[in-house]
């Protein structure tokens, strides 16, 4: 029997909410005090998406699951500030809402892989 996936889904939603709260405090691309925790939460949610069942994610092909996992690797392994803050902001602005909608749909339907 595999582990339940729902805690990971809730973890993703929590990280998205934290990023949004961070954004309300200012421009994450211009303020490193906001940027660093935003990156950490993006890393957290990216890691959690990797723990969702592949079969379940396959039902949502419009979500770039592989790219999300790759983004996590960039966040974790990119040293000396090689991550472009404007790219991070673009990811947040374009991709968090569709991911949130997808994860909420997964939870609402109580889907099993």
Task: Please describe what this structure looks like.
With 113 residues, the protein is mainly alpha-helical. The protein is built from five helices and no strands. The chain has helices at 6-24, 32-49, 54-57, 65-77, 85-109. The chain is globular. The mean pLDDT is 89.
Fold blueprint:
Layout: H1 6-24, H2 32-49, H3 54-57, H4 65-77, H5 85-109
Helix pairs in contact: 1-2, 1-5, 2-4
On the 0-100 scale, what is the average pLDDT? 89
Number of helices: 5
- Dominant shape: globular
Radius of gyration from the alpha-carbon trace, in angstroms: 14 Å
How many beta-strand segments?
Answer: 0
Termini separation comes to 12 Å
- Tally of separate domains: 1
- Our estimate of the beta-strand percent is under 5%
Structural class: mainly alpha
H/E order of the elements? Answer: HHHHH
Q: Provide the low-confidence segments as ranges.
A: none
Helix percentage range? 55-70%
Major β-sheet profile: none
């Amino acid at each position: 029997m595999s582990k339940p996936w729902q805690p990971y889904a809730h973890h993703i939603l929590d990280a998205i909410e934290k990023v949004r709260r961070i954004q309300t405090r200012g421009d994450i691309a211009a303020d490193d005090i906001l940027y660093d925790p935003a990156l950490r939460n993006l890393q957290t949610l990216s890691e959690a998406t990797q723990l969702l069942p592949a079969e379940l994610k396959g039902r949502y092909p419009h979500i770039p699951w592989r790219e999300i996992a790759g983004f996590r690797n960039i966040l974790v392994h990119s040293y000396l500030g090689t991550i472009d803050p404007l790219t991070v902001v673009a990811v947040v602005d374009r991709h968090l809402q569709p991911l949130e909608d997808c994860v909420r749909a997964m939870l609402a339907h109580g889907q099993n892989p």
